[in-house]
User: Fold these one by one.
Assistant:
Number 1:
Amino acid sequence: MSEPQEIVPIGKNDLVGMVAHLFAEGYRLVQIGCSTLQGGYELNYSFDKDYRFKNLRMTVAPDEEVPSISAIYPNAFLYENEIHDLFGLLVKDIAIDYGGSLYRTAIKTPFSIGNVKFSEPPKPKAESSPQQKEKPKDEAEIPEGQKE
Amino acid sequence: MRLFTMSKIVTKNLLSGPATLMYPKKKRSFTPITRGRVEVDIDKCIFCGMCSRRCPTYAIKVTKNCKEWQIDRLKCCTCNLCVEICPVKCLSMENQYSPALTQAEKPEAIYTVRREAEASGTSDHQVK
Amino acid sequence: MARKNVIPFGPQHPVLPEPIHFDLVTEDEKVVNALPSISYVHRGLERLIEKRDFVDFVHVADRICGLCSFMHCLGYCQAIEEIMRIEVPERSLYLRSIWAELSRIHSHIFWFGAAADAFGFESLFMQSLRLREVVLDIFEKTTGARVILGVCKVGGVRRDIEAEALKEIVNRLNSLKVQLDELSAVFINDYSIKHRLVGVGYISREDAYTLGCVGPMARASGLAMDMRALGYAAYKYLEVEPMVESSGDCYARCLVRIRETFHSIDLIRQAVGKIPEGPVDLKVKGTPNGEYFSRVEQPRGEVIHYVKGNGSKFLQRFRVRVPTFSNIPAMIKVLKGSEVADVPNIILTLDPCISCTER
């Protein structure tokens, strides 16, 4: 079933130019996603035209400001507000800015770097060591879960 | 403008009676594979603890030294994984779901079964 | 110069199945602006990947939403299977499609009742919920549960359906189709319903495309966009036809959903005719290392599941982008300039599923 999915890494300054280019070609904005990495955030802009899927990927440091694309695609304001509320990332000049009141959570920015726990990849040494690395983490997880 | 478009449905409903059951007077009929609650046959259990490791909500607790099997019925999501993984097939999924409880009755949700030692015969002593 | 009033709509409202809040700024009886406010059921499900490994997470993905439960499970399992390059057996692909189409039927019948209830046609609401019981009984007979099915897993499905059970499903759906025909004829041809729905909440084709409409909202405005054309599960072997209308108003959206229900009954009949014999699941070894976007056509539109793994048992990132979230900007544009009395109708033709939106 795998459809061809393109992922294009770009820099922060090329973002608005490439998005305007895609708008002129007739792509529609599908989603703006964000993942928390060890040293920053990874933004992912997805576009689609005639079932062809194209992604623009960008990595930003925690304190950087990201330009908004809501001037080109008006429906981007909802995704950018969500990213601001959940991740704490500052997006400049959103068309309709809720100022942090879209998601009202008990802890502010629940997905930001300080709050998320990362899973460690297994070391690619031998076949038995990934199993040994998973088991102590598994043991450590269960008492925490049963405590709830 | 059409008139009496629903009349056929209305007459059928009037003649055939209500579609709902008079629950709890009339019991609901379950299918053979309805997932209601997990029951254990404590005589067959070997206390290996595999059901407790497989449970995604951590609802089952097995203690080998005092031969006790415990489930928190409010945490159980009836996913059927413990029934499938048990090596001696002592767990079964009953059709009737466990009843609702108030806040005061919440400790009753934890269902514990303990197997008595072989000296006094293999009688199972249920603690609820 | 008229005075502006702010009318709060929601989160508790008789027509809303789930809590969402709109602040409607009105002048006299026309809505001038609408400000949405969500996060009444935000549970933070995306962070549960830190606590449950990728095999157990299927149970969490099932519980993102009640109406679209099976499709979330399906999208997640497909994403993991694509990352780990697992080829599931063909019989399980057909079974997944059958359950997915049954899911679509019961969601659309529920929507049908709720939409009729929004303008006071309560008897139609009761009749359609009675019809929906037929589909829920089929679910219980084949999977053991009525709403949260818990039948999809990474590597296939957990249960099989025998040939007689499949034939019985087709027979029951045929009798359901006759009753649904009568009910939808009452709805479509009624004079007062047409008066309330035709011409209300119009979205043009270009607006629907640039504002990111998906699902029946886009198909009612003339865009033939259906993710089943990508050919996931068993749809590459079945003939899927997107139902498209061109008028773009509330009446067109109702027509699209009613026609889709009949088309789903036909798809199930096709699938039961073509299903091959064989195993239904596969043993899964290893852990996911990579990322993938999985796109599935839910009853409300196109849903995207993004899964990223780095080789350990716990995933690194899981994100769901639901169709209701994508339709909200178009909804806000439609609400501007409409009458206050039309607001419940317009919001129900959007078919909001808020528990998906703020997992």
Number 2:
Amino acid sequence: MPVVEHTVIITNKVGLHARPATLFVQSAARFHSRIQVRCGEKYANAKSIVGVLKLGASQGATLVIQADGEDASEAVQALVTLVENKFDEE
Amino acid sequence: MTDDEIDPFPDILHALPISPGIALGPVLLLKSASAAVEYARKVEKEQIAHERQRLQEAIEAAEGEIDALHKQVARNVGSAEAEIFSAQKLMLRDPELLDEVEALMTNQLVSAETAWSETIAKQSAEMAALPDPLLAARAADVRDMGARVLSHLQAQGAVMEEHPDRGPFLIVAYDLTPSQTARLDPATILGICTVEGGPTTHAAIIARALEIPAVAGLDAQLLAELRSGQELAIDGAQGLIYLKLDDAQRATLSAAMDEQLRSKRMRDTARWQTRPGETADGQSVFVYANVGDSEGARTAAENGAQGIGLLRTEFLFGQRTTFPTEQEEFAGYLDLFQSFARQARFQKIIVARTLDAGADKPFPALEPLIGNWHEANPALGLRGARIHLLHEKLLRQQLRALLRAASAAQIELHIMFPMIATLTETRRMKQVLAEVRQTLSEEEGSPVPEVRVGVMIETPAAVWLADALAREVDFFSIGANDLSQYTLAADRTNSRVMSLFGPLEPSLWRSINHVIQAARAHGRPVAVCGEIAADGRYGPLLAGLGSTELSVSPPALTRIKEALHQHEMAYWQAKARELLLAETAAEMEEMLRQA
């Protein structure tokens, strides 16, 4: 099983708040792979909205996205793109 | 409380401003969503599978509710506010949260309620402890979602049962969840005063979007002393709670509240002007206007008419003693069409009713043709289509002028014939229209586009020919005022008989239903014009019967759109079907009273 990891910096104004976090988790849920997000010392399951919100990731924070499974590289790519595109909100 | 008792609370308290505005009125105490309810804690090992199943069902039920709320808020408040419920839906299926619940159930042998509420309490507390206040406020969503699932586990149905049946009230509660707030009807809720809550909670965002004044930070001890029905006032902008009011304060706050209401009503009207007619579940019902002159056409367009459903062409005649020329008719129609088209927000459809003259309305211009026009029963006399067929030249001229003006103003013209009693006269008038189009096309060297042709259903004869007429024409328009007159054999101009009958007569409603069903069977749209269509209590019921369009006076347009939007189409259909079972006007009244 491939394991894929990628680092991305949050650039949207509000960070991983309700709406961006919702989009992030909805996006992660589309993939079969197990996906983990790390922000500083905190880890979260990318498919858990409660976990992602509790990361408390604000603008400027670094996220490390790691996926493990058949569609790992697609999953990481999709999430990185979402963050880089500022969740299409700006 | 008398003056002798010691009053621990000052008359005006400082609280947190949540949503601006003044609210003054009787208190309605709501029990909190998180009120503790007894449930079994420990369960036997064999029961765990059953608990798991119960939790699954409760989550599914909650999911259905959240979906419904999402749609409702998106429609009534805005799609940005509705996003709250997307997040809550994800929380319901959160894998980490569900794993925790599962672990508690299997390792500690506790009930689904216990495992669920402990997990929710822990997760919401962790979230509330986040340093970022915006993120911390999301704890309220975890609790809201949690309370919803719990209420299903306890088979108590919706979280808030104590919905006020009357009002308006000032809601006082320990706290309100976003779901509870979204369900509040701004028409019956003056304001919200809670112990818990802050300006960044989703409940606060929804209160602001619904323009319901709100404050938080009420003393919990004071909450215990407040009683439903007592007077209270809040100032949501300044964060003030008025426990006691003197006459001057009451007058000032009342005036401010009236002003607030007036300005809100104006904005509401503006909102309905820009929206199409539809039921709460988005089923379209066209709301058209009845218009009798250019000024009316302009007002209709401004007020958001989706078309002109009844153009009374009599306006060109007035007190004239000579018949207008074709050019005069053309100029009059063109001005009216343009008045509508210039400001129309929706389609530029105009349904013109050909001249509906009768001896009860004086038409001096027609007298040279008709001669002595004094009739014992004008309502049963020479009128509408009957004049057209006696004097086809007038009809031809009017049709020519209408077709030419429609093409010049670039509007979509539909033609409608009044006072139809037979299929033969309908066919004859269609024939005349076809000939007029043919001649005009030849004169102008290009084909005059086809126009849709309809008939007014005003006579019992037309009601019972509805199936045959539906095969012959493109649409119906039920003239409810005349249909009532002819069905009940009650002269509209005779107040002594008219006072005996109201809009709710089973014979009238059954006639209308018969016409609508016949039209539907042939795929024809049916409009209803007349007073019942413009009444907020009855118009939506006509839509429930299957009427596709309501045509009302311009000032009633926004009112009817608002009335239609109060319930889903299935509600109006059920209510209308029930109404048809009534045998007396009193029974119909009674059925409508039961909401």
